[in-house]
Amino acid sequence: MVKRVLDTGWLAARSTEVEVNGVDLTTTQPPTTQPNSPWIKALVPGTVLGTLVKNKLVPDPFYGLENESIIDIADSGREHYTFWFFTTFECKLSNNQHVDLNFRAINYSAEVYLNGHKEVLPKGMFRRHSIDITDILHPDGQNLLAVLVYPPDHPGRIPHKGGQGGDHEIGKDVAAQYVEGWDWMTPIRDRNTGIWDEVSITVTGPVKIVDPHLASSFFDGYKRVYLHSTAEFVNKSAWVAECSLNIQVSTELEDRTFLIEHLETHHVSISPGANIHYTFPQLYFYKPDLWWPNGMGKQHLYNVEITVDVKGYGESDTWSHHFGFRKIESHIDSATGGRLFKVNGQPIFIRGGNWILSDGLLRLSKERYKTDIRFHADMHFNMMRCWGGGLAERPEFYHYCDLYGLLVWQEFWITGDCDGRGDPVSNPDGPLDHDLFLLCARDTVKLLRNHPSLALWVGGNEQVPPPDINSALKTDLQLHPYYMNSNNSGTSAVTPMINDPSQYLDGTRVYIQGSMWDGFADGKGDFTDGPYEIQNPEDFFKPDYYKYGFNPEVGNVGMPVAATIRATMPPEGWQIPLFKKLSNGYIEEVPNPIWTYHKYIAYSKPGKVHDQILLYGTPKDLDDFCLKAQLVNYIQYRALLEGYTSHMWSKYTGVLIWKTQNPWTGLRGQFYDHLHDQTAGFYGCRSAAEPIHVQLNLATYSIEVANTTSEELSNVAIEASVWDLEGECPYYKTSEKLTVPPKKTISTFEMEYLKSKNPKPVYFLLLKLYDAFDYRIYSRNFYWLHLTGGDYKLLEPFRERRPPLKITSLTFIKGSTYEMRMHIQNTSEKPDSNTLLYRNNFIRTNGSCDESDSSESISLLDGEKHEISLYEKIRRNFSREHNKARVSEVNGTGKGVAFFLHFSVHASKKEHKNGEDTRVLPVHYSDNYFSLVPGEVMTVTISFEVPPGVTPRVTLHGWNHHDGHTIL
């Protein structure tokens, strides 16, 4: 098969401004871009609103209050957002070739005109369309294509006060429901009308391959493995096709060489115009490399290729897909009542997030998806939940989840607010066309089912589909008998297959009817998820914090950095909230109108949680407010995940945070903003969710060790040191040697500094879990704490105590790619002590994950050895390119902790406008928002791409290094 994606050269025009019809457009009167022409350059894939924004015909709806100046479809009528899209393409066919025009998704219906011929594409946002255009291509190869796209039938109206899903009318269609607005999102004015996914033409011979299905079965403790595969073959010719069906399985070795594991050929005859489903004989593998989720092992992928050769023609079509051998199971855990997941027989404690979509205007790209998914893997997450009000996510999303090891919970397009609940109560019968919903659901299953990252199907968010749809989905997605028995992976006898599993629509993954049923929340559909607000950090650890075993949604704050506010809002949006004191002693934050529009969530909960930003003192300006918000972000999200991990398996089986990111410039529930800059909450999660982790229980002040891996951790010890604001170490303790069982959180000793004489009102605690034999660090965790009933206001004068730093940077440049290793040392004098604080020179760095899985953990004894070994490691990948080494020393004004250090990357400019955003984004950091005690060393990896002609500048800031230092 030859595939060509049609993603360039498109034009668009509003249908009411085009005076000719589709036949004329694609024959005698193609569009022009002459002056006064209604035609503009179009964004395909994309939406009408995305095209209008690109051409600056409407303002950026994500900037300030500009969305309010864009007319809503409820006021303009559907015609205003009914658009023509036009392009040309070249295609010449040889004898017996056939060509299809493919639309992977359109919202919501369309008329397609090609060279004067018309085809109507039926309704539904989540379905594929394929048109055989063999007989209507122009003989000269030049073809004209026009597509008239209609908005959803029921775009709805936005109530004055907004609301969850607007007036819920969008729920009558099979479409994304977030577009009418939510408590985290403003309305999308065109309701995402457009050709929002890939358009392509595919050329095949007389026989075409359609929707192969791959499945695997495991026996003898995963030593004996079988690959099952079924595909549809369509004979488009007028004669019997004598076919050789080939299946090949290979694995990629180093240096882009491939090892062929299996190659088999089978012969079939296909009648003229017939469709057949052919199941290949199962292929046997002995001890194949398995696919594991993030934190459990490598994400090994095989390449499965199916080809069909036709006698007298040759190769007619080919299909290939990456496939991971893995078995995923889940059941309701008797100990906790939560749903417990197993992968390859190993239980996995779920720590992940809720995913909406990458961009609210559906400006989707492989590059953006790659960054999004890698960010989640960098946080050590192992699951993402694709929320029912968003998308059936695209194959590119799943491709990167496969590569980075993120399990995916995929919901269908049902939400409580639009499908039976909400205010006012919405229609409980779901979309008007139930058959259309099921057609889209079945097509989505076929599109995504071969991805190992796909973990389960769920009927909807906080609601179940209508009974007939729910019953049909249960039937369609019933498990194959093999996957119902969780013990068969250990049997030694050959287990006969009752029907080949690849003959099922799926058959390998469980279907759950709704997000709060069957082991999630209370399991009965009651609103027992949440909460979605600021918390007292110690509450996350308390046994009564959450009653149920698996929380599918728990939310919190998400203020970005000040540069993002300036980049996404006019100056009137830079005003920080007013702090209004209430009669009960609590503070109510009163944000400016732009923050309110962008769904800001406060850092206080009057009556329950005192303002967490004011704990650091009243912020002076936007920069001060946002920096203090990052301190709170870090504490909140680290405590959230550590609290759940503290009760791993004894109380909880998993938690998903609402939510990980924003598909627009929102101000709540995010670990990185829409511009791809991380908040400090990102690194709080990264710390808390590491597979082996040492932590402080904020409710009991006992020190705990969490081992979420499958291996016992033996001969380890804990070092706990307290540091005051003067740079002294008044408390130091190491544990005896410990053994930590796999999949277990244990409590060790109490951190007793608070019981000492005259504990300081504000202090730092550094925990290290290390190998008692070679002092290798498994986990490092740094806290800033205050006495009960106190606050952090003493950190304000501490900003002027600037400790000295030494920063050794190694920079490797390959084209536009920068790879940096920053070796940062707090050169403050250590206090005189007989303690073992020299161990602070040992660190462990987790390499940033990448598709090649080439990162290595590095343990170092001193800076010099580290720099030499690290240089050698990087040099192999950048041997012919430019590299730089640099040492920067920052003089200090006093010894002590270098607190809350963070890097950023900017474009170097001699002159830039006031308020101009010079950041280079995205950037991947192995750590950020970190602190160093006297004498301590840390290595941070930084990688990024720079735009053409840009020279990057890397700076380091910190709480007590607020002036910033240029490193590169």
TrEMBL record:
Keyword annotations from UniProtKB, A to Z: Glycosidase, Hydrolase
Q: Which residues form the Glycoside hydrolase family 2 immunoglobulin-like beta-sandwich domain?
A: 207-326
Start and end of every Beta-mannosidase-like galactose-binding domain?
Answer: 35-196
Domain Exo-beta-D-glucosaminidase Ig-fold residue range list? 881-960
Signal peptide residue numbers = none
A single GO BP annotation from the record? carbohydrate metabolic process
Question: Which PROSITE patterns does the UniProt entry name for this protein?
Answer: GLYCOSYL_HYDROL_F2_2
The family this protein is said to belong to: Belongs to the glycosyl hydrolase 2 family.
The entry's protein name is Lysosomal beta A mannosidase
Q: Which organism is it from?
A: Anisodus acutangulus
